[in-house]
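Example 3.2
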Amino acid sequence: MADAIDVVWLKKDLRLHDHGPLSLISRGRGNRQCIIIYLYEPDQLGEKSVHGSHVAFVNEGLVDLDLKLSGEENIFCKTVSSGGTINNQNIIQQVSGEIYRHEFKCITVCHAGAAFTFSSIHKQRPIHQILCHMESGHLKSFSRDKQVRRWCRANNVPIREYDQTGVTRCLRNRDDFSKNFHKFLNQKIWVTPTESELAQMRQFRLLDLEKEQIKLHGKCNTPINPADLCEIPIEHRGDRIERQYGGETKALETFNSFLSHRGANYSSGISSPNTSWTTGSRLSPYLTWGNISLRYVIVITRERQEELRAAQKKKSGPTPVKNNPWLRSLASFQSRMHWRSHFIQKLETQPNLECQDQCLAFSQLRRQPGDFNQQYYDAWREGRTGFPFVDACMRCLIRCGWVNFRFVIVTFLLNKIFHRIESGCPYFK
């Protein structure tokens, strides 16, 4: 019987830093072989909140991580960064075509379901354990996780899920969230594998599927273009022209620029549609798709705060501290990071909020025949309602995939044209 292998299951954690499973696999002393796998899961792609720009963003993260694991330089990110701004429309469009010609070297990528793929691997080469991060998402992802756990129990395969958001699964009382969250933050950040450790992993631990003659359904040699994914409605397969570029390299660059100069006026500029483009952290897509670790962001920001306090106490430092807005801005930013996990915990604890009104008295509201007005909805989603601020926000969202006044277009959809939140899902994610 063939030796058992480890499987690292990548989901919303496409990064090398503070990554428990990759740190253990690359730095472990064992000689057990492993597969690092990412799945384009049909059931997850069919979820109503998925948009083609999300898949394109993930693809950029996949390529970035695959190049790092392979020990190669990411020329794509270098090209994007050369524009001198967070986003550069012409450069991103130029690079996107090259992304789809990248051939995966270290990450095994398949267009197939999770339990189905693990079963296929297990039949050809027994799985010793599955290593992954816990994911708090929509009900379809929760259903997928339960299906995988059932398969693991039935086949005596341990699955080890590592926390990456400070959210506790099956938390009975949300009053314990704060204690658990601070415990999570106080844990050491996982060590980032060195180039020599990654080289050792590639040489001795990473399984060569072709050499071992392991065949997997839907195996992809290159990233899938979202335009070719039939699970996504055709009207939502396109990309956002001026969205941010995905991947860990770009995420860390964006975070560093925020802490070094952009974030000084965060607290005063975040609410302005004019200044928030630069004063905001712009980390939301990178946190959502795991290109940057939440714990890393909070810990490094905390270190920056300590540097500023020390400089203020000594009344010296690289920058003047008198009337320095940095401490106020970073305190506001840290508060938002904590609230982010708080609300994820709320959804984790009450998953029925996705399909049930929080106030049950409103359950029948806007669900009657004739309540949905297609003409109003089309005007809303295309940014032509006639309300200038609403239309400007919507057109910004369509073009860039980001807007700091998202609540304006959400409340307009709900309270002015009286449509339910589900109809706007592809725009809000």
